[in-house]
Amino acid sequence: MNDRVVAAFDFDGTITTSDSFRAFMLDAVGPARFAVAALRCLPSLIGVPLGWSPRGPTKARFLYAAMGPVRREVLEAAAQRFVERRLPALLRPDMLARVAEHQALGHEVVLVSASPSIYLRMWAKAIGIGTVLSSELEWRDGVYTGHLAGNNCWGPEKVARLRAWWGTNPPATLYAYGDSRGDKEMAELAQYAWIRGESALPPLAAAGGFGAA
């Protein structure tokens, strides 16, 4: 009998109060370099919410505009500083509690996010989340290329990543937590879905049990 229960959490706006990538970049390069990079990428940045610019490549170009061909170890050090000193202030206590509830019930918690894995994996490991499905930066000889490696983990890509991750052993029950259009497909895949502002949190049940309807 398949009693696998998976809880998939979006990160930005769901677990956090605001966009973590913006906060990470501000912390990594400071306001002046952030502003210069924003000006360089302004047409693309404006085009993202209007549907003119692709989300993932625009994010990757912005990072490159701000930091250039940065070495991986330098960016990882910036990510570690961000996770330790800046990110905690952005986290929602109620959602951290929800993650802990799932873990206590024996559910597998997975982070599914369009933000870069370079800081998400550090944060996830610290709170016991072993699986992070997110956008990956492209590296060549240890240097950032200015591109993503693979697709931006947003919208339909979130479902593709989840399906690839669980392979031939899909969960009997999937919980999905999100806050925006980018989480729509993941929510539709789940038996229990929660989008911020649309409904109350779904009831929980132990692995092998049944949640209330």
Main attributes?
single chain, alpha/beta, 7 strands, 213 residues, Rossmann fold, five-stranded parallel beta sheet, two-stranded antiparallel ribbon
Helix and strand pattern: EHHHHHEHEEEHEHE
- Fold-level CATH name: Rossmann fold
Please compute the radius of gyration using only Cα atoms: 18 Å
CATH class: Alpha Beta
Strand percentage lies at 15-25%
Helix proportion: 40-55%
Q: What is the count of DSSP helices, taking H or I runs of 4+ residues?
A: 8
- Give the termini separation: 21 Å
Residue ranges: pLDDT <50 for 5 or more in a row? 209-213
Structural class: alpha/beta
Tally of individual domains: 1
CATH-derived architecture: 3-Layer(aba) Sandwich
CATH superfamily: HAD superfamily/HAD-like
Major sheet summary line: 5 strands, parallel
Please tally the β strands and state the result: 7
Task: Report the mean per-residue pLDDT as an integer.
Answer: 92
User: Reading side by side through the largest sheet, how are the strands ordered?
Assistant: 3-2-1-6-7
Global geometry: globular
Structure description:
The protein is of the alpha/beta class. It has one domain (5-195): Rossmann fold (3-Layer(aba) Sandwich), CATH 3.40.50. It has eight helices and seven strands; from the N terminus they run E-H-H-H-H-H-E-H-E-E-E-H-E-H-E. Helix 1 (20-40) packs across helix 3, helix 1 (20-40) packs across helix 4 and helix 4 packs across helix 6.
